[in-house]
Amino acid sequence: MPSAEDRHPHLSEPRPEGTVRVDLHMHTMWSGDATTTPDELVTALEESEIDVLCVTDHATINGAVKLQGELPCRVVVGQEVKTNQGELIGLFLVERLPIGLTAIDAAKNIREQGGLVYVPHPFDPMRSCMKPEAIDALTAEGLLDAFEVFNAKVSLPSLNRQAAEFASDHGIAAGSGSDAHEPSAIGAAYVEMPDFTDAPSFLAGLTAGRVVGHTYDMPRRWRPRVVPSTKAL
């Protein structure tokens, strides 16, 4: 397999002193639709030198909690939750988010946990993207902390540009994620931002960050492996 820098050339760029590389959106084998094991994550992270990984598995925080302290980077506990109006990500969670809530109720749940509300792949019709009216409602209610302006798996580059314009027009922090479902995608997209200590300083750093990334969506290489139950959420 090519090196991480060959797959993702921007990894070779020097980073400003005092900054960290943060992938705000990725999945592990705890998602059920992803393949990446903890051992594969360790190797991918060592190659890509990502400093902070927001583990945002579908419907669970189990993997993120387990991986804290087991990877060569910091882990932010997150979850990609399916609301009845599209997918939403909570970051800095302490409890699993239930599925099927409205976007507003899911965002309030995230905030009650002291977490951050992050909208992934906002306008991509090929995903369970958040409906425009739900995005407008979250924005009007002041419940939207960050917007994914670069998703490495987005179906059309214009959709990332549309997300970036929305974030800029509404003064919302810009996020970026690999949306990795297999290990070679780690490093495809991230935000280079000032270091942080908690959710508020993370959000402050995000607003001063630089979005880095390129389109990368390799097919998953399925092979036999022991995976956790996706029902034990």
Polypeptide structure, described:
InterPro entries: PHP_dom, PHP_domain, Pol/His_phosphatase_N, Pol/histidinol_Pase-like. This is Polymerase/histidinol phosphatase N-terminal domain-containing protein. It comes from uncultured Acidimicrobiales bacterium. GO terms for molecular function: 5'-3' DNA exonuclease activity; 5'-3' RNA exonuclease activity. Residues 22-85 form the Polymerase/histidinol phosphatase N-terminal domain. The protein is of the alpha/beta class. The protein has a single domain, classed as Metal-dependent hydrolases (TIM Barrel, Alpha-Beta Barrel). Helix content is 27%, strand content 23%. It is built from 7 helices and 9 strands. It has a 9-stranded mixed sheet. α6 (157-170) links the parallel β6 and β7. The longest helix has 14 residues, at 157-170. The protein is globular and about 45 Å long.
Keywords:
nine-stranded mixed β-sheet; TIM Barrel; 7 helices; alpha/beta; 233 residues
Please outline the helices and strands.
Blueprint: H1 4-7, E1 19-26, H2 38-48, E2 52-55, H3 62-67, E3 74-83, E4 86-91, H4 103-112, E5 116-119, H5 132-140, E6 146-151, H6 157-170, E7 173-177, E8 189-194, H7 199-207, E9 210-213
Parallel strand pairs: 1-2, 2-3, 5-6, 6-7
Antiparallel strand pairs: 1-8, 3-4, 4-5, 8-9
Distance between the termini: 33 Å
Q: How big is the Rg?
A: 16 Å
Query: Structural class, please?
Result: alpha/beta
Poorly predicted runs are none
Count the domains: 1
Order of helices and strands: HEHEHEEHEHEHEEHE
GO molecular function, one term: 5'-3' RNA exonuclease activity
Domain Polymerase/histidinol phosphatase N-terminal: 22-85
Pfam family, one: PHP
Protein name: Polymerase/histidinol phosphatase N-terminal domain-containing protein
